[in-house]
Amino acid sequence: MTAPDPMPTTLEPTLPRPLRVGIVGCGNVAGPYARSIAAHDEVMLVAAADVDPVRATAFAAEHGVRAHETLEALLADPEVELVVNLTVHHAHFAVTRQALEAGRHVYSEKPMALDADEAHQLVELAQRQGVRLACAPSTFLGDAQQTVGAIIRGGELGPVRAIYADVNWGRIETWHPAPIPFYEVGVLVDVGVYPLTIATAFLGPALAIEARGWELMLDRVTTGGERYQIGSPDLIIAAVELAGGAVMRLTGSFYVGRPIRQPGRMEFHGDLASVALSSFQDFDATVERGPVGGAFEPAPLVREPYHGIDWGRGVADLARAIAEGRRQRVTGEHAAHVVDILSAARRSMSEALRIEIESTFEPPPLMAWASGPERP
Ligand SMILES: NC(=O)c1ccc[n+]([C@@H]2O[C@H](COP(=O)([O-])OP(=O)(O)OC[C@H]3O[C@@H](n4cnc5c(N)ncnc54)[C@H](O)[C@@H]3O)[C@@H](O)[C@H]2O)c1
User: Fold this and answer.
1) How far apart are CA 56 and CA 62, in angstroms?
2) How far apart are CA 299 and CA 207, in angstroms?
3) Contact predicate 189/238, CB 8 Å
4) Cα 252 to averaged position of ligand 1 atoms, centre (Å)
5) Which atom of ligand 1 is nearest to the CA of 136?
6) Are 269 and 276 contacting, i.e. CB atoms less than 8 angstroms apart?
7) Is the distance from the beta carbon of residue 51 to the nearest atom of ligand 1 less than 6 Å?
């Protein structure tokens, strides 16, 4: 059942030239992106911008690229072909729309937009403009995550009917200097997107969701001493029905975090066997599998993993896809579908109803190195 994959296997040919990248939003995650982009031959960082020009200047100096005072200036830079949107959640839609309107390819951090209609508008705009649109998370391209994908698509679990996923992300204000936007959008929008994207990448679109949320710890304080109240539930339990028949139990929390054994664990249970992933985001997570009624045993990964999170892997796949004239694995359609699930979860929580999800998308093929004969 492994999807056909047009990409070359282990030795990927060097592209004629790297795609030139401009980063918008030079905050917390921009450094890890810049370092990852520098390690991928398919892409080259050339410019950066931020609403705070001081940040853009410092970031650009650190990474040896041009700083632009505004997004408009970055979009007027003829060298920038792909905009990587690393702004805060609330700014994603406007920044991505402006970049697409300027005829640039866009890779955005998640969520693609906060509103489902806006997410679909972006997909249509990219199509009209003849440019590519992609959106994080691309962690389903991780080595451990692709191993799970290969096991599922290889058929050894039989039909998968139950998925358990946990996102116990704890109290953001203990480590992030600007936590308030994270609580405004909530735990499913900020981190629930990871297991939702992985499950739908491997098993296809969602059909409906029922969710309930609780505000357990309303009053919080930033590291700078600012007091605020959370704007969304800090514990959410959701049941997501996939069109293929599986039901996913998704628990997300901005209250429960470490200490916890595996804050981002996912398990896929089938008629014949089960597979467990210790983390939805670490590319070197452990994978275990076991037959029904048996015990979990370690499963070898499809290849030597990247240690941690390779933030630019989806950006590099996008650049390679453009050069090869194929569809990229991380698509705007998939991201818009995930935004639909998030919107449906919000409605389900406020109306106490099961909400159906109408959009769909084409699940991506595995990476070539995960779908070859050496597959576990
Ligand atoms: N921090 C992480 O570990 C992490 C991990 C994965 C994904 N993300 C995602 O990355 C995005 C950014 O997160 P972060 O932690 O880097 O946030 P951050 O607040 O540290 O940085 C965001 C930056 O965007 C800038 N910005 C805001 N609006 C802008 C606009 N309209 N135009 C240009 N710049 C603008 C801000 O000035 C700031 O420098 C979020 O969507 C988040 O979900 C973050």
Assistant:
1) 10
2) 31
3) no
4) 21
5) 7
6) no
7) yes
Ligand 1: nearest atom to the Cα of 178? 19
Distance CA 231, CA 348 (A): 17
Contacts 24+ apart (CB under 8 A), 61-70: 62/31, 62/34, 63/34, 63/38, 68/22
- The protein residue whose alpha carbon is closest to atom 27 in ligand 1 is 87
Nearby residues of 186 by Cβ (< 8 Å), 6 or more positions away: 213, 231, 232, 233, 236, 254
pLDDT in tens, the chain (376 residues): 333 343 333 456 777 799 999 999 999 999 999 999 999 999 999 999 999 999 999 999 999 999 999 999 999 999 999 999 999 999 999 999 999 999 999 999 999 999 999 999 999 999 999 999 999 999 999 999 999 999 999 999 999 999 999 999 999 999 999 999 999 999 999 999 999 999 999 999 999 999 999 999 999 999 999 999 999 999 999 999 999 999 999 999 999 999 999 999 999 999 999 999 999 999 999 999 999 999 999 999 999 999 999 999 999 999 999 999 999 999 999 999 999 999 999 999 999 999 999 999 999 999 999 996 545 4
- What is the enclosing helix (H) or strand (E) of 325? none
DSSP 25-57: --STTHHHHHHHHHT-TTEEEEEEE-SSHHHHH
Our answer on whether the CB atom of 109 is closer than 6 Å to any ligand 1 atom is yes
Amino acid found at 182: F
Q: From the CB of 190, is ligand 1 less than 6 Å away?
A: yes
- Extract the tokens encoding 221: 């304080």
Residue 282 Cβ < 6 Å to ligand 1: no
DSSP 192: I
List the beta bridge partners of residue 239.
Answer: 210, 249
**Ligand 1 pocket, residue 99 CB under 6 Å:** no
Encoded amino acid at 135, one letter: C
Longest CA pairwise span in the chain (Å): 61
Q: φ and ψ at 76, to 5 degrees?
A: -90, -5
Contacts for 346 with CB less than 8 Å, ≥ 6 apart:
none
CA distance 19 to 24: 16
The angle at the Cα of 374, spanning 274 to 15, to the nearest 5 degrees, equals: 115
Ligand 1 within 6 A of CB of 25: yes
